[in-house]
Automatic annotation (TrEMBL):
<dbReference type="InterPro" id="IPR000210">
    <property type="entry name" value="BTB/POZ_dom"/>
</dbReference>
<feature type="coiled-coil region">
    <location>
        <begin position="336"/>
        <end position="377"/>
    </location>
</feature>
<dbReference type="InterPro" id="IPR043454">
    <property type="entry name" value="NPH3/RPT2-like"/>
</dbReference>
<comment type="pathway">
    <text>Protein modification; protein ubiquitination.</text>
</comment>
<dbReference type="Pfam" id="PF03000">
    <property type="entry name" value="NPH3"/>
</dbReference>
<keyword id="KW-0833">Ubl conjugation pathway</keyword>
<dbReference type="InterPro" id="IPR027356">
    <property type="entry name" value="NPH3_dom"/>
</dbReference>
<comment type="similarity">
    <text>Belongs to the NPH3 family.</text>
</comment>
<feature type="domain" description="NPH3">
    <location>
        <begin position="228"/>
        <end position="304"/>
    </location>
</feature>
<feature type="domain" description="BTB">
    <location>
        <begin position="64"/>
        <end position="128"/>
    </location>
</feature>
<feature type="region of interest" description="Disordered">
    <location>
        <begin position="18"/>
        <end position="47"/>
    </location>
</feature>
<feature type="compositionally biased region" description="Low complexity">
    <location>
        <begin position="24"/>
        <end position="47"/>
    </location>
</feature>
<dbReference type="Pfam" id="PF00651">
    <property type="entry name" value="BTB"/>
</dbReference>
<protein>
    <recommendedName>
        <fullName>Phototropic-responsive NPH3 family protein</fullName>
    </recommendedName>
</protein>
<keyword id="KW-0175">Coiled coil</keyword>
<dbReference type="InterPro" id="IPR011333">
    <property type="entry name" value="SKP1/BTB/POZ_sf"/>
</dbReference>
Amino acid sequence: MEATRGWKNLGVVETIYEDENEHSTTTTTTTTPSLSPTLSSPPATPAPLHSRVAAWSRAMGRETDVVIHVRGSCFHLHKDPLTSRSDYLKRQLTEASEITLSPPLNITAETFTLVSEFCYGIDVVVSPFNVAALRTAAELLEMAAKAGADDVGLIQVTETYFSRAVAANRDYASIVMRSCWPLLPEAETKASLVSRCIESLSLMVHGDGVMSCLDGVKTVCPEDLHVIAEAMYLQSSGSHDLLYRIVDLYLKEYSGEITEDQKTRICNFIDCTNLSPHLLMHAVQNPRMPLRFIVQAMFIEQLNTRRAVISAADRRHTRKHQPTNEAVTLGAMLQHDAARRDVAQLTAAMEDTSARMQSLEKQLNGMREHLNGCENRALDSGRSASFRFSSENKVERDQIGSVSSASFRVIPGRGEMGGGFSCSPADESFEWNVRPAEKSSFGRRLVSGLKRALRVSKNSQSDHARGKEMGIE
């Protein structure tokens, strides 16, 4: 009691942790990470940080020398305990005595309180309710064990708890999963908590039980789901059924906006060759999936159907040509009929898949034609706009520049050239210069041409009169 009163008289208790809500003063100490006694509520609040800070100040004879701001809360702490446990804080506090832990560091004031207690040597109680936050904070603050040191780091403490408790307990895994959603994407990119929880649940629970534990996935943003899908793709070496069901649940229940490109990038991590037959058929008929993924699923489904048909035909051919001395039993006949029905069903499924692919191709062609039509109409409208003239710019008859205003004259003997063709731009007249020597020949040719025309006309008239006399109309 006297030691407690002495710490209160130091005058630093009120400045250690400033927040709107006061923490309870219950002291809890443990030597190893322990499980929470119940799952209905978080564990009891650990020992108050200000008591340990006051004791450290009294033992070392030094007051707090650093200030750390976290989500509106202010922590007055000592530099040495923090820098000895966290490489990140060591770098930040090298030249500054006051820092702020802000995003992308996804750390709350409550979590940093536990981290600070760990730095001061307090045994932190790890539970399913705080292991995700502590594990993520330990990674962000780089709190690994030091080489050659006896003390373990917070990363090792939380990882040990996760491996021993969460990975083997369905209820704990569900609680950790729910606590990971607000910690994304750091909870996955730094510690792979979400993908490992999903893997643990898939091993312990089958069917719809796993999906009931993953109901919170619909609250994450598309970018975070992309991170989860990528991690599951890299960790999975077998079936992709669970990944497909998670993506389908997200596309069905997500209330926000998601683009077609985001859907495609997420679905790229689903390998259709690793889907079970019933989910592959579901993917072919799923309108929520992007078109590219549906076409890929249809292609894989058609290949599987083709292989099944060929395999069934080969087995039938082998049985047909295999010599046997025994009579055909009823079981063999039933098995043969069942095989024939399977082949018929597979053939029908393949035909249905082909029809769907043709329908999709027609839709794609229609979309292309529609886009081309829009482009052509846009080009035509641009051309029509460029060729419009105002009414006052039109050329009227008998104006300068019209055909009727131009004159054509034959002028003999102009210029040194014997004859030629010339244009006067002033009155738009044309002149044809003819040499005197050619003038008489030109006249003679003109007269002879007129004579031939008259002769032909007379001959035609005489022929017409002769025809009338002979009775030919």
